[in-house]
Amino acid sequence: MAFSSMAFLFGFLPAAALCYFVIPARWRSGRNGVLLLFSLAFYAWGGLRLAPVLAWSCLVTWAAGLLLAPGRRCRRAVFWAAAALNLLPLLYFKYTGFLLGSLNALGLELAVPSILLPAGISFFTFQSVSYLADVYRGTVPPERRLSRLALYTAFFPQLLQGPIVRYGDFGPLLAERRETVPEISAGAVRFCFGLAKKVLLADALGTAANAAFSAGDRLTVGLAWIGSAAYTLQLYFDFSGYTDMALGLGRVFGLPLPENFDYPYIARSAGEFWRRWHITLSRWFRDYVYIPLGGNRCSRGRHLLNLLAVWVLTGLWHGAAWTFVLWGLYYAALLMGEKYLWGAALERMPAPLRHVYALLLINFGWVLFRAGSLGQAGAVISAMLGVAPGGLWSGEAEYYLRQYAWEWVIAIPAALPVRVWICQSLERRREGGSRVSAAALAFGPKVLALVLLGLSAVRLLSSTFRSFLYFQF
User: Hey, how many other C-beta atoms are within 10 angstroms of the C-beta on 88?
Assistant: First the structure.
């Protein structure tokens, strides 16, 4: 069930909120129980057959956490065994077909089974492993209540696409939190903005991106650039839109979630981009892979190997295909280059040129990410570099510029911190005594959120439903 579906917006979410808030706030375990039941129902909506994978992760992680308590024997063996038991389902469901298909490409004739990927498995697996690692390190105590750990694993706002949450941040809130009217209001406003990002911008721009990547012999230089730019914006609004909805729902239920985006397209380097994009995943790999391998406190050669390992794993985490492996290697090479080759020269460049540098590299990277095969990635990149079967320009390229003119006009400033600049300006005027600015800050976001909610509902009723892009990961 997707947040942008009519079933969720007008069925599941109102029912969950009603059942949650009808229980007195002092009965914290009762409200937690409602969230857990609705979270399990939310996951089971996609198919009961794969629900045991989530249950397995919860049970293994909970039991292993108790065995990892300080003073227990064989803690190291328990940790690695529990981590393996969590990772094995991910490896089987996500990578079996990729492995067998790659072996067949080398000349073998192995049967490749059709395996349905459990929704959100990459996210809840990484959360479970982070909990085990934190308990093993002693940074969080083991959770003795299975229901609380299950809610941490299955909390429906962030179950399918994150953000990836640490139990040290989430667990204490299950016992002590307050749901206030201002927080509920702010959460609802953020949810509406996230819904609009997905429905009004991402889905529309996705049409232009799909046209470019499926153009074949009709692909022109102009259409390739339009398609790559459309996908760059589509992916951001799709994923950050989901994150806004997840964070908004978390605030509604008194369980704030970590930020996952910080306007990544204002970055001035590949390194800065990854400090702003999918922040919780970057931190996960930093804390549980990169630093344990030695980080950058080692020889240059070892540091390069550490970066290579992290980015190959990052690519594979996103998808079981050679395009994702190449995408990971692409960013590994960029980060190595910025660290050891052209980083100093980049720092001396004017800020606008650094922005152009970063955006171009990000754009080419998303082509690898989006392409269905290495051949398709090569065709689009070649077209962007001037070698296109359809020439420089076509009526199709012009069509997608004109047809989605309003989406282009809105999407570009929406990807920049324009809202932050406006709010800061209004805040300064409010502090200076402006009543208009005070009213704009107090009521402007709420009114705009209602307008966007209405427009999103109309769009959903009049168009075909499209799932979130990151559901496939």
Answer: 13
> What's the token pair of residue 64?
């292993």
What is the rounded distance in angstroms from the CA atom of residue 404 to the CA atom of residue 311? 35
- List C-alpha distances in Å: 290 to 122, 150, 238: 18, 28, 28
Which residue numbers are catalytic?
318
Let me know: does 238 contact 470? Beta carbons within 8 Å.
yes
Distance CA 78, CA 453 (A): 48
pLDDT value for 364:
97
What's the gap between Cα 391 and its chain centre? 36
pLDDT in the model for residue 472: 65
Of the candidates 354, 307, 309, which has an alpha carbon nearest to the alpha carbon of residue 334?
307
Provide the residue ranges of all domains of the chain, joining segments of one domain with +.
26-177, 183-462
The pLDDT of residue 379 is: 96
Burial code of 124-158, b = ≥16 C-beta within 10 A, e = fewer?
bbbbbbbbbbbbbeeebebbeeebbbbbbbbbbbb
Return the pLDDT at 107: 87
Q: What is the pLDDT of residue 6?
A: 87
- Residue 462's pLDDT is 81
Distance (Å, whole) CA 153 – CA 148: 9
Question: With the CA atoms of 56, 61, 62 and 64 taken in that order, what torsion angle do they form, in degrees rounded to the nearest 10?
Answer: 120
Q: What is the rounded CA–CA span in Å between residue 125 and residue 131?
A: 10
Those residues of the chain that have pLDDT short of 50 are: none
Confidence at residue 354, expressed as pLDDT on a 0 to 100 scale = 97
Closest CA relative to residue 143, chosen from 161, 158, 127, 156: 127
CA–chain centroid gap for 302, Å, is 29
Per-residue confidence (pLDDT) for residue 471, from 0 to 100: 65
